Amino acid sequence: MTVESNQIEAVLFSAAKPLSLSMLERLFDIDELTLVKALETYKEELINQKRGIRLQVTAAGCELVSAPECAAFVEKIRKREDRLSSAAMETLAIIAFKQPVTKAEIEEVRGVNCDKVLKQLEARELVLTLGRKQTIGRPVLYGTTDTFLRSVGIESLDALKTEIKEKEHIHGTTGETAEIH
Amino acid sequence: MDTYEYAVANFEGPLDLLLHLIERHKIDIYDIPIVSITSQYMAYLHSWDQFDIQYSSEFLVMAATLLQIKSRLLLPKAAVEMEEEDPRDELVQQLVEYKQIKALESLLEEKSLVMSRLYARPEEVSQLGREKIFRFELSHLYQIFKRCYAEAKDKEKEAPVVQMEKDQVPLEGMLENLEEQFSKGLRISFYSLLRRGHTKEHVVVTFMAVLELLKRQVVRLSSKASVGEEVSYEMRGNIDEDVWIEGAKKNDGGK
């Protein structure tokens, strides 16, 4: 049992939205390993053949996107997503790092009020309420969404955490992790 | 507000400013010269020519904290050497954490910049995932609603006549309540959900809440009938137990 690149392409094109790996497995009736290999092959083909589309795999699923080198032209017919303010980015970073997290905890890290920013992020579906913390006042707990991971092109929160750790390692910014024996 | 933020050189908050000062003077974050950093911080505040109470107050809290730490450091130490904690500890901890967040923020910034140049097909084009809602026509929901509504009315009649304050059921409250229950994994048939209401008002509000949640795609409808199977309620006769509602959001933030 296997799946050809053209079959993947056809399905992803007509879906016009991210499809999860498990959905693709069922659709093609293949196991995960076969699918991942086929996706990898397809991904490389798109690059090697200098095609105008790319395969993007994020937490939201697999989807086709335009190639980055063609952005200059695509931008002429498509509107770019509004950039997030740095306050929003900062808040998003805190939630990504510490979720599930309450508003009070976010404000403690930032040192400023976060009402407006949180509403903004919720409206853009980058964060959502996960429930309420069972403490006094039952404050709302926030977490990031798959839409967020899709917007930064990441497969999972763990992948993000690994990446940030590697970065710290290269720049040696932490200072405290230096171990002495 | 916006012009004001511009005036203070885009600092997101007191910690941002403090971190900026520390980095500019290449200070070791674990050994901050409180006296000089405080005076620099204060100098910065003095340079503002506008005052916005909401925004500035957050900077003033930090100024007060700095001054407090400074005064505690200046006080003569108690004669007995005790395991005294450095008054700067809490601030240092806060700064270290904030610095970490800043690193993550710039990583996210980088990534979203890359992603903003990749265009997916417009999602409005996609029909995927919508057919589930279409399969249940509104008339099915309305049929169930009508039955429950009629039953609720009967119940009201049977109840003894007591003068009571009217039990108001606000739609917002119902929405919030249902949303929380569904996000916790509640799965219930539409019929039993409506039957929870004892009064007409309750049934109506529940129905409205469900419609709203469907619109917001917080919940979805499902049927026992497997996908593709023709659903014919009339023939089966038990429409009541065939329309189920459950939370639609798969949230997990990534796993």
Descriptive report:
The complex is a heterodimer of chains A (181) and B (255). With 181 residues, chain A is α+β, with helices and mostly antiparallel strands. Chain A has 2 domains: 5-74, Orthogonal Bundle (Arc Repressor Mutant, subunit A), CATH 1.10.10; 86-171, Arc Repressor Mutant, subunit A (Orthogonal Bundle). Chain A is built from 9 helices and 5 strands. Chain A has helices at residues 5-15, 21-28, 32-48, 71-74, 86-98, 103-110, 115-123, 146-151, 157-171; strands spanning 53-58, 61-66, 101-102, 127-132, 140-144. A 3-stranded antiparallel sheet of chain A has the order 3-5-4. A two-stranded antiparallel sheet of chain A has the order 1-2. In chain A, helix 5 (86-98) packs across helix 7. The radius of gyration of chain A is 20 Å and the shape is globular. With 255 residues, chain B is mainly alpha-helical. Chain B has 2 domains: 2-114, no CATH class; 129-247, no CATH class. Chain B has a 3-stranded antiparallel sheet. In chain B, helix 2 crosses helix 5 (89-115), helix 3 runs antiparallel to helix 4 (53-74) and helix 7 runs antiparallel to helix 10 (200-215). Chain B starts with a helix and ends in an 8-residue tail after the last strand. The model of chain B is unreliable at 1-8, 226-239 and 250-255 (pLDDT under 50). Classes of the chains: A alpha+beta (181), B mainly alpha (255). Chains A and B meet through strand 2, helix 5, helix 6, strand 4 and helix 8 of A and helix 2, helix 4 and helix 5 of B.
- Tell me the span between the first and last alpha carbons of chain A: 53 Å
According to CATH, what is the class of the largest domain in chain A? Mainly Alpha
Main sheet of chain B: which strands, in order across?
1-3-2
> What kind of sheet is the major sheet of chain A?
3 strands, antiparallel
CATH topology title of the largest domain in chain A? Arc Repressor Mutant, subunit A
Separation of the first and last Cα atoms of chain B: 39 Å
